[in-house]
Specification:
about 375 residues; five-stranded parallel beta sheet
């Protein structure tokens, strides 16, 4: 099944409901679907074909959601670039993935001249900012306006959906090949783990290039809920948007959770709409988790553990397990549905419970190759 099936369902079942909300700009699912079809047509006009790579280097926005679906609609594969990389590292991912088009916002536009020399594979730069596009760059809104909509490529489950580069903490970053089926499998798990429904309002506060947030991107679309976004994490912005947009769900990494609950600002905002908070991507100290649970007693906390190669969810610790407390709060949870998790020794033999070993996983979420 293609990722775009979730968008088709949202258009069919909730076309008039709000799909994306960003800095006063609201669009319905019908609007987003039409824009995605036109943006995919624009990509085709730029020479993007089935299986080609299209990258993005941008802070969070509503256009980031449209990018994901337009690339899939065109039959191409995405490459969300880590915004923390240096220009040479960005160029490495673009060259390694043979990206032909790069979407870029105003925050990173200044690096384009350097990328033109370092990343010769990129033929077109699409400017996602709100101001006039710089010279020799294509304006995002103009590309949509002048392009005819095209039919969805309707990628097969086993086709490449994107290249996602690892953190490179133990060596050179590697491009992990994930399929539409991989990402759909994880989205279904996240719907269950987070209790997403059509009335959900999800806040993209973590970086949208990261698979931890991306899992909810596809899940929220599949249930035809609402995407809200802030460009980057900021405690005041998080709280303002949570209150103003009646946010029900979000994902924060432990450092963000700490900044939020230690800010002293929680009592100043109405956060009664907030139902669930997903956390992960790094270890959560138990003391901090208990502090957060005390500060937000009505919120169901859920932990996700995984890695890029598993698209990314391997295990989750449910909100119910958090409420049970005890030693469970130091756990990474139970295997996600349809994922086989085992702890193996150096000879690939399963070890007894409580024994240190290598975490190994298999399932429909595991990468190509």
């Amino acid at each position: 099944m293609s990722l775009t099936q979730g968008l088709h369902r949202a258009m069919q079942t909730a076309g008039s409901r709000i799909a994306t909300r960003f800095q006063g700009r609201d669009r319905t699912w019908a609007d987003v679907g039409q824009r995605v079809a036109r943006l995919a047509g624009g990509l085709r006009a730029l020479g993007v074909g089935r299986g080609d790579r299209v990258a993005i280097l941008s802070l969070n926005s509503d256009r980031y959601v449209e990018y994901f679906y337009a690339v899939g609609w065109a039959g191409a594969a995405c490459n969300p670039v880590n915004i923390r990389l240096a220009p040479a590292e960005i160029a490495y991912t673009l060259n390694d993935s043979k990206c032909e088009v790069l979407f870029i916002d105003e925050t990173f536009a200044a690096v384009v001249p350097e990328l033109r020399s370092l990343a010769p594979s990129v033929s077109h730069y699409v400017y996602m900012g709100n101001a006039e596009a710089p010279p020799a760059m294509i304006d995002y809104e103009d590309l949509i306006a002048r392009s005819e909509p095209v039919d969805d490529a309707e990628a097969e489950s086993g086709e490449l959906a994107g290249l996602f580069y690892t953190g490179g903490t133990t060596g050179k970053s590697k491009g992990v090949r994930l399929t539409h089926g991989n990402l759909v499998h994880t989205a279904r798990n996240v719907i269950t783990a987070m209790g997403y429904d059509r009335d959900a309002v999800y806040l993209h506060a973590g970086p949208m290039f990261h698979l931890a947030d991306m899992a909810s991107t596809f899940a929220v679309t599949m249930v035809a809920a609402t995407h809200c976004a802030i460009p980057r994490f900021d405690v005041e912005q998080v709280l303002q948007v949570m209150q103003g947009a009646r946010v029900t769900h979000t994902l924060l990494v432990p450092t963000m959770v700490n900044l939020l609950v230690s800010s002293g600002r929680l009592p100043d905002y109405d956060l009664k709409s907030l139902r669930r908070m997903l956390y992960g991507a790094s270890p959560m100290p138990e003391a901090l988790l208990r502090k957060a649970m005390d500060a937000l007693p009505a919120v169901g906390f859920t932990q996700g553990y995984g890695q890029t190669e598993a698209s990314p969810l391997i295990t989750f610790l449910s909100a119910e397990d958090h409420r049970a407390g005890g030693g469970l709060l130091r756990s990474a949870g139970m295997p996600a549905y349809g994922v086989d998790v085992r702890i193996l020794d150096e000879r690939d033999r399963q070890v007894p419970r409580g024994t240190v070993g290598e975490i190994c996983a298999r399932g429909a979420n595991v990468m190509l190759g």
